[in-house]
Structure formats: C-alpha cells, structure tokens
Amino acid sequence: MMNILRFEVPGNPISWKRTKTGVNQKTGRAIRFNPKKMKERQNDVWIACHRAMAEQGFPRAAGAVALFVLVKFRRPKSDAGRPWHTQVPDYDNCGKLVADALKGVAWNDDAQVVGGPTWKCWVDEEPGYVVWVKRLPGMVDRAKDAFRQLRAASSLVLDVFEHETKRGMGF
Question: In terms of DSSP H, where are the helices of the chain?
C-alpha cells in the first residue's frame, strides 16, 4: 500500500473564501453558499486527487495524514526572479481550499490532517497546486512521538523540493 500520494492540479490558484450569506428570492429566507469560483477549483482538486488515487493505488486514509501543498503562481514579467510569492492570497487559505476539497476522497474528515506545510512560490511554467498526502504510521501515545513523525514528514517535503528543482520546475 502506498504511503505517499502526489498529484498536480493545473490552473491559476485561488484561496479559500468564507461562506457567503444571501436571501432566497422566492422564499425570502437567508441562505448560505460558497463562491462559485472556489467550488469549481475545489472540484478540480477533488478530480485530480481521485484520478491520482486510482492510478497510484492509494486508498482513502483511515488514520492520521500529513498534507503538503505547493501553490505555484505564474511569475509576472516584471519580477526579478524572487522564488517566494509574498502577496495575497495567504498561504493558509490556499492550503485550506485544498484540504477542504480532499475531505471524502483522500480522507474521511479534516480532523485526520494532523499537520503539514503550505508554500507559495513563483514559477515560470504552468501555475497550479502540487499536493502530497502522507499516511502517518499507527497511533501515537505521546506528543513527542507525534512531533517526531511530523518533523520526519516535513523533511520529506524538503527532499521533494530538492528533487523537483533538479527536474527544472523553475523555483
């Protein structure tokens, strides 16, 4: 069984937005809804994850997972080559969009995600998201053990960054 799932979602990244409230024109009652553009991007993430799970033999996680997200923004022509995207949207809202989209496909509940970083960077190629989902082994009895597992998982992402850079991803 695979312990790490990796997939990419091409297209311009957007961030998670708060649920909006409006009025139903027919009934006059208050309704809550998510912005259409956000729902469409979450659907893109869901589809890419579902395909990758089928291709890579990665069943839905039943236990703890770490989520790593690289958010790639197309570099503007005026940029001097800085690697990190330091503008809005915020990194945590970009990661939340991905995490919310994966509920019910990569895991059952968001509570299973125990940690993992989100990075934003400029790229010269296609913008989008690169996502890694890592199953974390077994139950942990102490916070120290849990921290050790997360630290090991984070070092995995740094190794992946190094590998992706050597492949010429442009950051």
Answer: 36-56, 91-102, 143-166
pTM of the predicted structure, to 2 decimals: 0.73
b/e burial code for range 85-99 (CB count within 10 A of at least 16 → b): beeebebebbbbbbb
Contact between 35 and 14 (Cβ < 8 Å): no
pLDDT tens digit string along 62-111? 999 999 999 999 988 887 778 888 888 888 888 999 999 999 999 999 89
Three-state DSSP at 136 gives coil
Burial of 141: CB neighbours in 10 Å, binned 0-12, 13-18, 19+: exposed
**Are the C-beta atoms of 72 and 127 separated by less than 8 Å?**
yes
* Cβ pair 7, 49 in contact under 8 A: yes
Amino acid at residue number 6 = R
- pLDDT for the residue 76: 85
Q: How far, in Å, are 13, 79, 113, 131 from residue 102 at the CA level?
A: 16, 33, 10, 10
Residue type, 128: G
